[in-house]
Amino acid sequence: MSFNNSQNTVPLKIFGLKSDLIHPGDDIFSKIKTAVENAGLTLHENDILVVAESALATSENRVACLSDIQPSSKALEYEKLYKIDAREAELVIRESDVIFGGVFGVLLTLKNGLLCPNAGIDNSNAPDDCVVLYPENPTKSAQEIAQFIFEEFGVHIGVIIADSRTQPLRLGCTGVAIGAAGFLATVDKRGETDLFGRPLSVTRVAVADNLASAAEAVMGESNESTPFALIRNAKAVFDPAAFGVTTIPPEECMYWGVLQKKNGDA
Fold first, then answer.
1. Which pLDDT band holds residue 146 (cuts at 50, 70, 90)?
2. Whole-prediction pTM
3. Which DSSP string corresponds to 174-204?
4. Which of 16, 119, 170, 216 has its CB 3.0 to 4.6 Å from that of 96, i.e. a possible disulfide?
């Protein structure tokens, strides 16, 4: 897949990298190397590798069997209120930093600074009666993958650990970066000017999130067996020492702040 990212530049290219089934404890580095080789690709300096968080988490043994979970009284309360399996609710309680509330089947949580459903716990592409938890430390894993690529292929690349996420008041999922390394995940445009020479005062570009969404177009959401994607010619600021995604506290979020204020006024 190719996208023209602007005039007078080379086109953005995205390659889906297929893999056989990833089991708990599998070597994610070996899976990535095999996927690149099977695709017949040569890695270039400043490519960006996108890794599905569920594939990474599975390789890290971040898989929980629901039959092993004893729900607490709070989990049973969530089951009654929101019709979510009490065992899964118990895992959400353990994994989340904050639980704000819920709707049918879902608890809205804060996990590692990200607003997400059910603390990122996923029951798709998981073994029977099991769920996949978020990777333990997505950015650390991104750094380790970037280092592996450098040692194995001799090139510096960026790495994104990507999840899919619904957006407020929109139907359907887009990509979001939960970990990144090798490039600036967010680029500050404040102080630059627009087409009419006016200075930008608030604009920051979520580069990693934009690229994660683009990669979702080839990685898929179900049985595509494409847990990796390679992005080439991305307009990003590359730096082997860069790592992490940028988050803000809820009180600084426009949407969260306004809705909280409205609820408080009510």
1. very high
2. 0.90
3. EEEEEEEEEE-SSEE-TT-B-TTSPBPSS-E
4. 119
